[in-house]
Amino acid sequence: MQRRLEPYGQLSGVGAGIHTTILLDAEVARTVAAEVGRAGVTVATVAESTWTNGDRDGLVIGYGNIGDDDLDRAIDLIADRLARTLSG
After folding, report:
1. Segment holding 12, helix H or strand E
2. Can you give the pLDDT at residue 13?
3. In angstroms, rounded to a whole number, what is the distance separating the alpha carbons of residues 85 and 31?
4. Domain total in the chain
5. With b meaning 16 or more CB within 10 Å and e meaning fewer, what string describes 10-21?
6. SS3 13
7. CB neighbours of 51 closer than 8 A, spacing ≥ 6?
8. What DSSP string describes 32-60?
9. Residue 38 CB contacts under 8 Å (≥ 6 apart), including other chains
10. Residue 10: which CATH number?
11. pTM across the whole model
12. E strand or H helix at 69, and its extent?
């Protein structure tokens, strides 16, 4: 997961629990969350997951109740959408 997502934003919480956060521009986070959602992968944004988030946003990627194959597919989809969105 870390290797596939690191190029796109700052990762937090990798291997420390049941989710990882990747910090991103708010518009990028909203766009990617919506696009992967249409493909069947639910990913929350930091803004949706906190009471106050200041000027930081990103994606909250939960992996506490998902099999390895499904997680790999979801991470591939997220990385693909991040690459497309950030390349303009």
Report:
1. strand 10-12
2. 77
3. 8
4. 1
5. ebeeeeeeebbb
6. coil
7. none
8. HHHHHHHTT---EEHHHH-S--TT-EEEE
9. none
10. 3.90.1150.10
11. 0.88
12. helix 68-87
| pLDDT tens-place string over residues 18-65 | 889 999 999 999 999 999 999 999 999 998 877 765 667 999 998 888
Structure tokens at 62: 């939960």
Hey, what are 28's tokens?
């990028």
Q: What contacts 16, CB < 8 A, 6 or more positions away?
A: none
The whole-angstrom separation of Cα 8 and Cα 18 is: 20
User: CA 52, CA 86: separation in Å to the nearest integer?
Assistant: 25
Q: Which two tokens mark 46?
A: 């930091």
